[in-house]
């Protein structure tokens, strides 16, 4: 189904969360015909999770090195030169598994520190992902102070990103897939 969608559309960059991929599933099995370069981070410890960025093969793209202290995170970053204007942009896709316990707060803290470090390295950043923030109200910009929602908000505010969320969660709040961007260039 993914191949059909990609072949019938004109997507240059696609971010995917919860790929459920593992090393036995090759990039060629994910996309055929070499239409896309595949950048992915599979979950190594258990089934599920994982993130992936697909970038059109016609683009100039390379993986951004993420510090090894973040090796357990589900995050991928790719530098892409936007063909139309020649602007380099860092595209990031990340996933934070649901939960609010101490382990979840620790994971969130590391993830948002990693995102901070990637945002510092580039003027133009597009952040995509599922951060499992069910109580973050994007319209009113309200959220609980629970060591997860609030530190994500701080990450977004500190990096001056604008957030576009398009997937309602539980019918009242927007938590999941969102695109955030910060740009010094006009796209």
CATH superfamily: Endonuclease/exonuclease/phosphatase
Query: End-to-end distance, in Å?
Result: 30 Å
Class derived from helix and strand content: alpha+beta
The gross shape turns out to be globular
Describe the sheet with the most strands. 6 strands, mixed
What's the total helix number? 4
Strand order of the largest sheet: 4-5-6-7-11-8
Looking at CATH, which topology would you report?
A: Deoxyribonuclease I, Chain A
Specify the helix fraction band.
10-25%
CATH class: Alpha Beta
Count of extended strands:
11
Tell me the Rg in angstroms: 16 Å
Instruction: Report the CATH architecture.
Output: 4-Layer Sandwich
State the domain count: 1
> SSE string, helix = H, strand = E?
HEHEEEEEHEHEEEE
Mean pLDDT: 83
Low-confidence stretches: 169-177
Percent strand: 25-35%
Description:
This protein has 187 residues and is α+β, with helices and mostly antiparallel strands. It is globular and about 45 Å long. The protein has four helices and eleven strands. A six-stranded mixed β-sheet has the order 4-5-6-7-11-8, covered by helices on one side. Strands 1-3-2 form a three-stranded antiparallel β-sheet, with no helix packed on it. It has a two-stranded antiparallel ribbon with strand order 9-10. The longest helix is centred in the middle third of the chain and has 19 residues, at 102-120. The protein has a single domain (2-182), classed as Endonuclease/exonuclease/phosphatase (Deoxyribonuclease I, Chain A, 4-Layer Sandwich). α3 runs parallel beside α4. β6 (87-95), α3 and β7 (125-130) form a beta-alpha-beta unit.
């Amino acid at each position: 189904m993914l191949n059909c969608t990609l072949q019938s559309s004109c997507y240059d960059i696609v971010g995917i969360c919860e790929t459920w991929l593992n090393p036995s599933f090759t990039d060629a099995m994910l996309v055929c015909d070499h239409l896309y370069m595949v950048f992915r981070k599979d979950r190594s410890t258990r089934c599920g999770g994982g993130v992936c960025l697909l970038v059109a093969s016609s683009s100039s793209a390379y993986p951004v090195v993420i510090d090894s202290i973040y090796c357990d995170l589900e995050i991928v970053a790719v530098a892409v030169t936007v063909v139309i204007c020649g602007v380099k942009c860092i595209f990031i896709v990340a996933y934070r598994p649901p939960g609010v316990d101490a382990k979840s707060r620790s994971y969130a803290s590391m993830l948002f520190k990693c995102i901070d470090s990637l945002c510092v390295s580039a003027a133009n950043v597009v952040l995509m992902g599922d951060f499992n923030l069910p109580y973050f109200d994007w319209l009113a910009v309200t959220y609980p102070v629970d060591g997860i929602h609030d530190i994500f908000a701080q990450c977004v505010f500190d990096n001056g990103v604008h957030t576009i969320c398009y997937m309602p969660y539980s019918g009242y709040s927007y938590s999941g897939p969102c695109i955030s961007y910060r740009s010094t260039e006009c796209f």
